[in-house]
Amino acid sequence: MNQSHLFFIFFGLVTYWVITIYEPFLMDIAIAILLALATVPAQNYFYKKLKNEILAISLLTILIAVLLFGPIIYFVVTISSVVANIDPNIIPQIIEKAATILEKMPKSLQFFDGAIRESIKEIKITAMSNNLLSIFGNIGAKSAIFIKDISLIIVFFFFTHLYGRKILQYLGENLPFDQDSAKTLFTDTSLIMSITTYSIIITAIFEGALFGAAMGFMGYDPILFGIMYGFASLIPVVGGVLMWLPVASYEFYLGNTQGAIFISLYTIIVISIIADTFIRPMIIDFVSKKIAKTAIKIHSIIIFFALVAGLSTNGFWGMIIGPAVTSLFLGMISVIGSLKSKNI
Fold it and tell me: Could you give the C-alpha distances from 45 to 162, 165, 270, in angstroms and in order?
């Protein structure tokens, strides 16, 4: 057997075992690399100001942890605490309250009465109450796993920035890639990811702050609801509805019709129409020109489909993976175009 063939067989086996060993961490490593790639311009900015690479990377890591993962941890801890304190015995009371509301249903809606009552009868209260404890336990376990993943991502993010250039140099020297094309691909992908990542984060913070202010005015926890709306806004089209509709319905259930109307109109007009339709494109344009400092244009429809695809295939982390893969694809197209122009 040819020695080169034997080497590649051996290399394939070693690669398989490396992937097997590191499989539990591959997603965390991938997300950390993608975030590092998106924040290269920020690292360069901090380095110019501080003149110290480790200090610049440490500051950037802390900033990412606070801005991106701080709200997630706050949300997970708060929701876990709220869910753990829910009394399972309250479920029969809710169902009894629903039956009472049915008795006062207007005549125009009474054709729903039969179907709703049948649905209520089919609810097995005892089984649901017994399962609540296991549900709470699963929520706590998943929260712990989520926080563990976040911690690993932060660690990998730091070391990716610290040793990223050396790793890229090593790969460039040993892999059969044209150096100029590889550099162009890296630069374009990093800039495109910077635009998408910064735009997503700034928009989510802005819209979450608007919704949180309204919820604080109504007596709710503004930080919790602001975080929830910020993440919900990442889901195109229906994201905001997932937040304001349950709140409006609950206020209407309590008899606060004015509060229900206020939160509905405020979210639709101020956030969905003004902020999302008019201000979001301005944020993307601002990031493109001022932060990323590039002439590359990213249409908002591209970010839209990248988020939809990422969230539908990879869940929460898809908001990073979707735009990242799309950015890499666009960067490769840019490299192909530059190579074609050189050949011409």
Answer: 15, 16, 34
Residue 324: closest CA among 36, 127, 61: 36
pLDDT single digits (tens) 201-231: 888 889 999 999 999 999 888 888 898 888 8
pLDDT digits (tens, 9 = 90+) for 262-318: 998 999 899 888 887 788 778 877 777 765 555 555 566 676 677 777 777 777 677
Residue type for position 216: G
Is 63 within 8 Å of 157 (Cβ atoms)?
no
Residue with tokens 């709220």: 82
Residue type, 7: F
Lookup result for tokens 């709200």? 71
pLDDT of residue 212: 92
Residue 339: per-residue pLDDT: 59
> For the residues 23-48, what does the mean pLDDT come to?
85
